[in-house]
Please model this.
Amino acid sequence: MIDRHDVMRMARLARLELSEEEIDQYQEDLMRFLRSGQKLQQVDVAEVEGTSHAVHVAHELRPDQVGTSLRQEAVLSLGPRVEQGFFRVPRIVEGQE
Amino acid sequence: MKELIQSLDVREVSAQEIVQHHLEEIAQHDPGIHAFITVDQEGALRQADDADRRRAQGQALSPFDGIPIAVKDNISTKGLRTTCGSRMLEDYVPLFDATVISRLRRAGLVLVGKTNLDEFAMGSSTEYSAFGVTHNPHDHSRVPGGSSGGSAAAVAAGEVPWSLGTDTGGSIRQPASFCGVVGLKPTYGWVSRYGVVALAPSLDQVGPMAKRVEDAAALFALIAGNDPRDATSAKAPSFQVPAWDPEVLRDLRVGVPEEFFSAGLDSQVEHAVRGCLRQLEDQGAVLQPLSLATNAYAIDTYLTLVTAEASSCLARYDGVRYGKRVEAEDSNTMFAKSRSAGFGSEVKRRIMLGTYVLSANHYEAYYEQAQKVRTLIKEDVLDALSQVDVIITPTTPTAAFQIGAKRDPLEMYLSDLFTAMANLSGIPALSVPCGLNSHGLPMGIQIMGGNFSEALLFQVGYMIEQGVEGSARHGQL
Model:
């Protein structure tokens, strides 16, 4: 059972602001999704290791060489709000003026 | 394509003329189909001009120098808007090319534009794009499939000779099947994902779409290969286009999994696929019935993993470094307002489901459980492939459905019923047109094989293509 409170908690974790209708809708969707997924719960996986990637790839270290990278101004040009070479965001730490 | 290249070689036509012709096709057909989000007319003509100059100097970059292509709009193109079908990125212009794009440019291909997709590749009909619905060129009241619906429709309508799509659970093969074109989901890791906007990194692959098997194989040869910029890139050699020899069918062991021919499969699709199987048998292949029982879990496993990975991948859209931003007093509210304004309803739905299956109390029961079932599915597939050379199934249970017919998201998810298994297990899978149904709609046949068996899949696909009559192959367009 998933209640509206659960849906709102998920939305908070996912940084989504949902309308009342969306909360109702996603509550129903979540319940139906979990119900349909119930047959997965019945599969015996006691001795089974999980697969995180389809093909096993050993991660390799690359040579530590200086290469070309994107210019700071170019990257900053994509930012919705930029100031003095930084991305600007609203205040994060409170109470310090 | 062969004819195009020959006429370019003998300078009968110029790249300018070829590109101009395709731009005219787009201008004529795309208002009714809407395969494209962005058409780069000026850039395409400039690239064609460069190609002609190189050819005049005897310095063509490849046999394909000057041939146009379209690319799904979740693949980064330097200087050309890459929206992912989302309001979140409607003004986003990448600063770099995806590796697959660099490879196309190195061969001289002319990028004419970016094709429509379900938002962030989440969907099976291209109805979930923030830029409007794409229509199936065979019947404008029907969907082209998805999420690479624009790439499939553009090829089917003759707007471009070939295109690139991406496939996470069937997003190349299902639209290829619906639009009557060829589409390959490559072996995981053979094509670089660098610069491809992630939906689910453990499942995503870029692949070719074209009218003919030969052309899909040629395009695959251009994009496949190791890339140090992608940590999951396979240490595989480059791909060589195989010889088209009917001998390949002699004693070829073809697995036919009974689970893919049971209830829910449209009778006309079944008839067409079984007809192709009989033809292969007549040409020397040996059909072997087999069971892939774990396909019963494929959709639920796929959905659990894809929503989990997507919710994590889409955390990067926060209104800070790029993309949509809605201002607010504090950062958390700014993030939430920006994300809620930028994402459409299907994207939010999947983020919600993914957040749930990854959350503290549910992680083991859902996400970890799905990862383990994935192992069983993969073992099932690899076990089957130890007994046969290829596995052949329908690509989709039905032909293209009507626009608006699938309002229920759970029903839409079932579109991937026959295709998700290849992504979960990593193996390559090719969809080839196998005829038209009584409404004149294309149907597709899927050929799966072991990792890095693309050459064999193309060869078998080529033989199937030869067996399907010209007009029934792609329909009358």
Observations:
- Chain A has four helices and two strands.
- The longest strand of chain A covers residues 82-83.
- The helical segments of chain A are 4-13, 20-36, 38-41, 72-76.
- The CA atoms of residues 54 and 88 of chain A lie 39 Å apart.
